[in-house]
C-alpha cells in the first residue's frame, strides 16, 4: 500500500523478535481484597511481579478507593511475599 499510494520509492523493514519471561499467576490478599499477581520467571527465578490491573480496578470501584492505592497495596503484598529482583 505504501508503494502504491505514496510517492516513496522504497520502504525499509526489519524483522523483530520478542523474548518473554515464563509466567505464573498467584493471588495475594490486601486490605481491599484478593488480587491476582502475574509473576515473571527467568530460569525458574521470580524476576518480576505485577498486579492484575483488572482485579485492582474492580476492587477500587467496589470499595470506593483510589485505584493507585489498590495497585500499591497489591504490589507491596507481592514484594513482601516474593521480593522480586526488579
Please characterize this protein's 3D structure.
- By secondary structure, this protein is of the alpha+beta class.
- The protein has helices at residues 2-5, 53-63, 67-82, and strands at 22-30, 33-42, 45-51.
- The protein starts with a helix and ends with a helix.
- The relative contact order is 0.18.
- The model has no long low-confidence stretch (mean pLDDT 94).
Element layout with pairings:
Layout (H helix, E strand, L loop, with lengths): L1 H4 L16 E9 L2 E10 L2 E7 L1 H11 L3 H16 L4
Antiparallel strand pairs: 1-2, 2-3
What order do the SSEs take from the amino end to the carboxyl end, as H and E?
A: HEEEHH
Strand order of the largest sheet: 1-2-3
Distance between the termini: 42 Å
Q: State Rg.
A: 20 Å
Given the structure, what is the number of helices?
3
Percent of residues in β-strands: 25-35%
Shape estimate: elongated
**What oligomeric state do the depicted chains represent?**
single chain
Key descriptive features of the protein:
86 residues, alpha+beta, three-stranded antiparallel β-sheet, 3 helices, 3 strands, 36% helix, 30% strand, elongated
Q: How would you briefly describe this protein structure?
A:
Helix content is 36%, strand content 30%. With 86 residues, the chain is of the alpha+beta class.
